[in-house]
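JOB MANIFEST
job_type = single_chain_structure
chain_count = 1
residues = 373
[input]
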Amino acid sequence: MHLPRAALEDWMRDFYFDTSIDLGSSGVQCWSLAELRRLLGITVEELDEIALDDSPSYGGPNLRRAVADRFAAGDTDRVMATHGSTEAIFVVMNALLSAGDEVVVLDPAYHSLTSVAQAIGCRLVRWRLRPESGFTPDLDELRALVTPRTRMIVLNFPHNPTGAHLTRGQLDDVLGLVDGNDLHLVWDAAFAELVYGREPLPDPSTLHERCIGLGTMSKAYGLPGTRVGWCLAAPEILASLVPLRDALTICLSPLTEHLAARALTGADRILAIRRAQAARNLDRLGAWAEDNADLVSWTRPSGGVTAFPGIVGVADTEDLCRELGRRHDLLLVPGSGFGHPDRVRLGFGGAEDAFGEGLARLHKALVERRGTL
């Protein structure tokens, strides 16, 4: 299989590590090890006891138990720990799909959720979240896209990059499509616990045997450096992933597994801090967007920590984002990586002072740019 280059990752390689203000990332502010230890009571002695050995293929028992207790109704047999959700996406699609299969995917979407199936040789059918309707999911349109040839539906809610989300009733409608057709649902729940004004949805893998849930420590938990994710599914589906796991990564590090397990056990404390921070940033972004309606147009996200605003009068934002990186020391992601070149992915999960400074720099650049047109 030949995977295409990921425009998003190419952009992040060029600007993520070389800018001091981040308005482009899709996760919350990262924790330091010292902060994590202090919040969760992790001692040096506890860390010293970890043997840097291999972990089991499905993940260490403590990590699997922590994931199961939070997301899989306590059933560890339905949990496989993975190297982030990216490994889970890759092994699930390669285990369950074949060339020629029809796969319904979101548009726009995070690149791995479409590119892996495409590289396998599947036919992608795109369920479009449309800017003219505020990126509101249209379940009638999804129903019309599912045919007897559909073998998988791939969804990511809350959605990256738009922040759109489903209601519980809409999730039940999606499960009805799974129940009435010979297909699997892959549910990327990277942002499941980053919602505003509502309760998180249950993981569909706990509701239907042909649903696969994916999760990660990267987005809501602020621990992308652990590279820990998970796949939730029926035991027979997880068993089908093992040969690919053996060929790719074999296992995770027991050190990062330990940190992830402790973070999941203390998840409510971690999430409360970062969710409140993101909510304050979102309110600030809303006020900023209202004050600058002549410069940007947007739809307020229902979940996640990204918005997907349009830049008024700019048909392609790549030059703008490149200028922001090089002249203003600011990371912003052009929407071309998501098929909408007139938009940008704007992340609001970071530190509040830096977020405010980022908005000020963005405003300055937009005003300057308008003055030269």
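[summary]
Residues 47-266 form a domain with the Aspartate Aminotransferase; domain 2 fold (CATH 3.40.640.10).
The chain has two domains: 7-32+269-366, 47-266.
exit_status = 0
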